Amino acid sequence: MQRFSSHTHNTQSRQVLTAALRGHGLRFASFVHQEGYIGGQWVPAASGKLFPVTNPANGEVVGSVADMGEEETQAAIDAAHTAFQTWHKTTAKERSGLLRQWYNLVEEHKEDLARLMVLESGKPLVEARGEISYGSAFLEWYSEEARRIYGEVVQSPVTSKEMVFIRRPIGVASMITPWNFPNAMITRKAGAALAAGCTCVVKPAEDTPFSALALAELAEKAGIPPGVVNVVTASRGNTPAVGNLMCSSPKVAGVFFTGSTGVGKLLYNQCAQGVKRIGLELGGNAPFIVFNSASVKDAVAGLMVAKFRNAGQTCISANRVLVQEGVHDQFLAALKEAVEQQTVVGDGMKDGVTVGPLINAAQLKRVEKIVQETVACGAQVVMGGSVHSAGECFFQPTILTGVTEDMRAFKEEIFGPVIPIKKFETEEEALKTANATQHGLASYFYSQDVSQVWRVARSLEAGMTGINEGLISAAEVAFGGIKESGIGREGSKHGIDDYTYIKYLCFGGIN
After folding, report:
1. pLDDT tens column, 187-220
2. What mean pLDDT do residues 12-21 have?
3. Residue 16 scores a pLDDT above 80
4. Rounded to two decimals, what is the model's pTM?
5. 75 Rama sector, left if φ>0, alpha if ψ -120 to 50, beta otherwise
6. Helix, strand, or coil here: 449?
7. DSSP codes of every residue in 382-394
8. Which of 322, 506, 278 is nearest to 422 (CA)?
9. Helix, strand or coil, per DSSP, at residue 504
10. How far is residue 446's CA from residue 341's CA, in Å, rounded to a whole number?
11. 281 flagged as catalytic
12. Are 74 and 42 spatial neighbours (Cβ–Cβ below 8 Å)?
């Protein structure tokens, strides 16, 4: 593979790109690259090809990045495998210090990282700032958890032996991350992997590669050794080949993916050939239940957070809203007022904007079709329901009522600013509807009845449940789902589990 060995050439390339980005509102862009990051070097695609990254708010090209393929991916895996031979021998204290320095640098550059994210993802600046803080929290958390990867001493059944369990890092971890949280989905995985003593190869989504490359630059500045963190960028066309190699390479010990259930199943199948460790955080179809005993004001506030963050493009977004008949009309009126008063659609860089564009035209068409088919089946449009005048990737904040379980808006994950509402009569009916899905990532419900809270919390079939709360994510919590929504947990102390294996040591001849 050809590499940029000339510092002058690399500097000139960066200057051209950063000048363009400053024109888009980025103030300081010293960490912006168009090359991939492999083995501690910034390298172009072997073919020399680039692919454009566009701003979904206006269609303008933000910049172009290397369109890498199997050759570069293999080089990244090789670099990570070589680095692992020394990285796993470092002390937990050393790894902790480097992760902490990475965290400090992310915090130092958080405003530019947020602005860069807005340019490539479209999300409002206030949300981008929130994601940078959320993402850096994982680096901080795992800088602390690195020193708490404990083993066990087991009571031996015989006096001649001592039995001990220790935890060891699995090796090279492949990470395939999504466009909707281009910073936090990397730090949540890489923080845990590095804390455990693993090395990683990151393949960011083709829509949002700049955030990943910026993190790599800051990791390098933090002193993380070459090859420990690698970033391979690829267009949509090259992604299948890159992903296949990241799953099939014998040098890769585990694959960790956040994205759609369909792609997750494909990766799961590819990993089976090598019996690799796998972590999957996949799609959801989260129910949001409002019982008669709920505080309607709190429930509306919770739904606004759970639905409209990132224009509804989150895996834990409230997707099916179930409202008990006793508070249905009151809730609907309050929700309509909140949406009218609190949502401002537009370019994420503009002050006051709360709802940005969908990631691309294809996603907008999908959301539009879901709404059209649901209305055609009998649902009523309370507000919104069509493309927004702000631009070709914007959709109006939408409320639909009279939705039934067989309608598309209830059967599928919408991934857009659309609220479908179904009225229900009994708790049993709500639970039956909520659990009637193959997804089980997040769920939410509002109730002031203590006994009902415990009954419903136990009964909802989901890995996470927000009770009188619409914002449930944090570095400290175990994030993940059941059913077809994934395998494993990210965040919390359990986030390290998938990056380690238990090694049993048996000491004989003790007598």
Report:
1. 999 999 999 999 999 999 999 999 999 999 999 9
2. 55
3. no
4. 0.94
5. alpha
6. coil
7. EE--SB-TT-TT-
8. 322
9. strand
10. 22
11. yes
12. no
